[in-house]
Amino acid sequence: MGEHKPVLLKETIEGLAIEAGDVVVDCTVGLGGHSVEICRQFGNKIVLIGLDADEYAVKQAGAKLQNCNAAVFTANFRDLKKVLDELKVKKINRVIFDLGLSSWQIEGSGRGFSFRRDEPLLMTFSSQNQGLTAHDAVNDWKEENLEIVIRGFGEERYARSIAKKIVEARKIRPIETTGQLVEIIRFAVPNAYRYGRVHFATKTFQALRIAINEELKSLELGLEQAFEKLASRGRIAVISFHSLEDRIVKKFFAGLARGKKAWLINKKPVMASEAELVLNPRSRSAKLRILEKI
Ligand SMILES: C[S@@+](CC[C@H](N)C(=O)[O-])C[C@H]1O[C@@H](n2cnc3c(N)ncnc32)[C@H](O)[C@@H]1O
């Protein structure tokens, strides 16, 4: 399974300015990249609460954080307030959102996140998911809705043609795998696009994943609840990987700053250094924004 290198690790931890006694919440604990380093630096001086929607990630992170003052839970961060209320945690001091997927989920979860593999069309963060899957989307959704999602969440300029070809293909036989979907997209886009710098299926896959997991709605809900639970002088750090996510974070932070409820630690988002870009190409699109509650 592909190793996941935590992105903007030093910048995030420095920017959070963690202090002894803090309750730190990692809303996307993943395989523990950020949390393990926080535990290494602050040990039992802090309390760490980790969440992830993915059961496998929670198990892995839990094992790595055994020697810290940490508790890790399977939960969606859109339910952050409920999780904290159940734990009887009234206030939190530092919060991390490192959005999107871990490398292992793309490469090794078998849930259809990668257009480079032939896997069942799930695209769900949770392996126990009983709800909507990418299979439902491509086989059941109306053509207009597929087009709206692929354009809106993928910013894919060939959304219309891709949606049309998906609907044509499923009339012949159900679309069961990522491999089938990639072939449909291949025939829906112009030749030059097939050989472009960015793989021609990237945006459609991104769009379906965002829609299936309601990622943008979850982000809005997670940010609101994190801020509500945040103590005065507490900080929230968000690492986003595409413009739709970053727009939500930027707007949310700017609104709080305008209302004099918070101030922005960095006026502009922090991006990966040249050195990190060489070691971890995934950091190329990462943007870190940090805010402090007044
Ligand atoms: C980029 S990875 C985090 C990696 C982690 N910071 C590390 O360095 O190991 C994002 C993680 O967030 C989880 N995730 C995404 N959206 C989520 C949500 N709404 N609620 C909970 N977890 C979520 C994914 O399952 C994934 O494990």
From TrEMBL:
Residues bound to S-adenosyl-L-methionine: 32-34, 52, 77, 98, 105
GO biological process: rRNA base methylation
Keyword Cytoplasm found: yes
InterPro entries: RsmH, SAM-dep_MeTrfase_MraW_recog, SAM-dependent_MTases_sf
Single GO MF descriptor: rRNA (cytosine-N4-)-methyltransferase activity
Protein name: Ribosomal RNA small subunit methyltransferase H
This enzyme's EC code(s): 2.1.1.199
Organism per entry: Candidatus Nomurabacteria bacterium RIFCSPHIGHO2_02_FULL_42_24
Keywords, comma-separated and alphabetical: Cytoplasm, Methyltransferase, rRNA processing, S-adenosyl-L-methionine, Transferase
